[in-house]
Design brief:
31% strand, 6-stranded antiparallel sheet, elongated, 115 residues, alpha+beta, PH-domain like, 2 domains
């Protein structure tokens, strides 16, 4: 009689799972390098708001766009969504309250909420 708990994975399965784990680890290191350390060409370095218009400074240059209604403002974070010129989908950036000085973060929240 065959029981499910007596199933032993094959050698091919073990090799495949090791490859998957290794590639996942490589992807996480790559993502950390590109996004957390701001090495990607399109990583947001800084931005400025003027009413509904936004100017984003990236490593690849400056992008201009418009803040869209998908933007979420809470007490602890802001999800800033903007439709950039030349791009079809909006770009979203999460900004936590400890990333900016308290007064600057409060002003950002007020501007986005009432803009």
């Amino acid at each position: 009689m065959f029981r499910a708990n007596e199933f032993a994975p094959t050698k091919t399965y073990n090799i495949l799972m090791r490859c998957v784990k290794f590639s996942n680890c490589v992807f996480q290191v790559y993502s950390l390098y590109r996004y957390a350390l701001l090495r990607a060409r399109y990583s947001w370095r800084s931005f400025s708001l003027d009413q509904k218009h936004i100017t984003v400074s990236t490593q690849g240059g400056e992008l201009y766009g418009e803040v869209v209604h998908h933007t979420v403002v809470t007490a602890h974070c802001v999800v800033l969504c903007a439709r950039m010129e030349g791009y079809k989908l909006p770009a979203c950036q999460v900004i936590f309250s400890d990333a900016l000085p308290d007064e600057v973060f409060r002003e950002l929240r007020v501007r986005l909420r009432y803009a």
